[in-house]
């Protein structure tokens, strides 16, 4: 089962090593100084990258959005020229870039060969794509079409995840996820399912039974509120309008 990423994981994900990449002279990445960042889980697996002399642009699978507009890229490039790379480039244990293609391109054009790199170790292919989608939704200003594109890709990778789980992961509205899911189901790109996995990994019916609660008068409202709280606690993925 895929493990979800939280917003904290994006910038401080713990299955990493931090390196300073010097690829102009063909040197292998070496462990960076503490300023590059530390992990709260020291026991997480890491990779020394001893056989890889430089970070490698990813295949199309991790470059999940179109290139930046020229003006936006020039602004990024100017900022890197002035302040350096502030957000490390994310790579897997084979040094394939998961996120940071534009930062690397800017460094190449500026002749910068010393920049921070986070190594994300032990992720499956779907998890790598999930990570790339999440950091893009959190770091970039996306159009509605781009957001729906990322949601569609996540639904194809994890169709059994509840809409609320995907929405929380990508930082979007669960109604957006539900709408994209219906489109993919209509075109048979994903199957129509009867159960979904919530954030806790538990499977629940896609359609919850209707539950009616009778309140004889205003004095019963507190008891009704307690019953509703108990129902929502039992099924946390129910929509807020339940």
What does this entry look like structurally?
The structure is a single chain. With 242 residues, this protein is α+β, with helices and mostly antiparallel strands. The protein has two domains: 7-123, Alpha-Beta Complex (Conserved hypothetical protein from pyrococcus furiosus pfu- 392566-001, ParB domain), CATH 3.90.1530; 142-203, Arc Repressor Mutant, subunit A (Orthogonal Bundle), CATH 1.10.10. The protein has eight helices and seven strands; from the N terminus they run αββαββαβααααββα. It has helices spanning 7-12, 70-83, 101-110, 125-139, 144-157, 163-170, 174-186, 221-234, and strands at 16-22, 30-31, 89-92, 97-99, 114-120, 195-197, 203-205. The strands form two sheets. It has a five-stranded mixed sheet with strand order 2-1-5-3-4. Helix 6 (163-170) packs across helix 7 (174-186). The longest helix has 15 residues, at 125-139. It is elongated, with a radius of gyration of 22 Å. The relative contact order is 0.12. Mean pLDDT is 74; it is low at 1-53.
In short:
The protein is an alpha+beta fold. It is built from eight helices and seven strands. Helix 2 (70-83) crosses helix 3 (101-110), helix 4 runs antiparallel to helix 5 (144-157) and helix 6 (163-170) crosses helix 7 (174-186).
